[in-house]
Design brief:
nine-stranded mixed sheet, eight-stranded parallel β-barrel, TIM Barrel, alpha/beta, 2 domains
Length: 411
């Protein structure tokens, strides 16, 4: 991969090199990233065999490139109340840094079909060049736009280290009338109280698609399990869910129902697991009032910091490795990112303690379990590692040995 930076911006080049060295220090492979200086250019080019991206900014040129994939506006002078009009001209990849509003600053951007997103915090940006360097490196490392914006802000605070604590990050905005940001759960997020879980109670976490597997694995000693039936027209869906919940009560196990939160409430489930899209339509207040534990899927910094505002019972981190069990909205996260997400989560309040329970998911088997476990997660979610095993009890026992052993590396 080649990163082409205008040669008349030497300070930026040195800052990018420094941020890349910080990325390397936490485990990112940067060996194939080459920085080249380009004369008579006013944009950043990222070229490799899979993609060609352009980053433009008013730090490089007064005139933004219309061909750029990302356009960072630092010297815009807008305040939050201006944005109903500004949004009419925003296109995919526009990012406005340090938009002033009462008592706080906001970063506002357009991504994924030009949906407006924002994050906010008390600190104003003190070094635009540093922020820009972090943004460039985040895009080079293939973080999506929303994560790149979050990392750039946090990195310009941490500076000499990779950002790792909640205090270094801005907070994703989940409700704002000026920006037309509104989610179904925002008003109730702070008042919904979901059960907290003991980290030791999760253990190995199979995800299966029928009640027969639920019964079989609970008989073999599994204490946390998820019923994930993708087809809403699945024959006897309600009966499957009811039976799974009853089996959980029979074996004193934590059975989570994926997606079908209404049926989970109707039959008194221990827990429900929801994806990012599902929380927009689920009645979180009703789930909380029924004392149902809530697990939420996340795929990066932005989603993680977004859902902790709901105060879920656990956070799923994935997908770690390539998986064929479902269509995923993101690329595999890998071990380096998993460890970094876990480090951030360990700095966030959970009940009376620090650190949410976390479930790593996606392509985990006996060969990959140990390095995933060493990232500091609370639980390992598995699918095919059990459902395709010739001897499920042996596989359960092997996972148990891994999870009972001492951790290496991250923690």
């Amino acid at each position: 991969m080649t990163l082409l930076i205008p040669s008349n911006h030497q300070d930026l080049i040195e800052r990018v090199r420094h941020v890349l060295s910080l990325a390397q220090s936490v485990g990112f492979d940067i060996d194939d990233i080459q920085i080249s200086e380009v004369k008579e250019s006013d944009v950043i080019h990222i070229d490799d065999s899979e993609r060609r991206q352009i980053i433009s900014s008013d730090l490089l040129s007064v005139q933004m490139s219309n061909e750029a994939d990302y356009r960072l506006h630092y010297h815009h002078g807008f305040v939050e109340s201006d944005f109903p009009k500004v949004m009419q001209s925003m296109t995919l990849g526009d990012v406005y840094i340090d938009v002033h509003s009462e008592f706080e600053r906001k970063d506002i951007w357009s991504c994924r079909e030009e949906v407006i997103k924002a994050s906010s915090g008390a600190l104003s940006l003190t070094d635009a060049q540093e922020h820009f360097a972090w943004f460039i490196v985040s895009i080079v490392l293939d973080f999506p736009l929303e994560d790149a914006v979050m990392l750039a802000r946090a990195g310009s605070v941490s500076r000499e280290t990779w950002p790792s604590t909640r205090e270094q990050f801005f907070t994703p905005v989940i409700e704002n009338s000026h920006l037309a940001i509104k989610v179904g759960w925002a008003v109730r997020a702070a008042t919904s109280v979901f059960p907290t879980l003991s980290k030791s109670s999760l253990g190995l976490y199979p995800v299966v698609d029928n009640v027969e597997w639920i019964e079989r694995l609970l008989k073999q000693g599994i204490k946390t399990i998820q019923l994930r039936i993708k087809d809403p027209y699945y024959p006897n869906l309600a009966q499957q869910i009811q039976k799974a919940i009853q089996l959980g009560e029979q074996y004193d196990a934590q059975v989570f129902i994926n997606d079908y939160w209404q049926l989970a409430i109707e039959y008194g489930a221990f827990g429900v697991h929801l994806g990012q899209e599902d929380i927009e339509t689920a009645d979180l207040t009703l789930l909380a009032s029924n004392n149902i534990a809530l697990g939420l899927s996340t795929h990066g910094y932005y989603e993680l910091l977004r859902v902790v505002q709901i105060h879920p019972s656990y956070i799923a981190l994935g997908h770690i490795f390539p998986t064929t069990t479902k269509v995923m909205p993101s690329r595999p996260q890998g071990l380096v990112r998993l460890a970094l997400y876990q480090q951030l989560i360990d700095s966030i309040q959970y009940g009376e303690k620090l650190g949410y329970p976390t479930v790593a998911i996606g392509g985990i088997d006996l060969q990959t379990a140990k390095p995933v476990w060493d990232c500091g997660v609370t639980s390992l979610a598995v699918v095919r590692a059990l459902t395709l095993a010739a001897d499920t009890q042996h596989v359960i026992d092997e996972f148990s040995l891994i999870m009972a052993g001492e951790r290496d590396g991250f923690r």
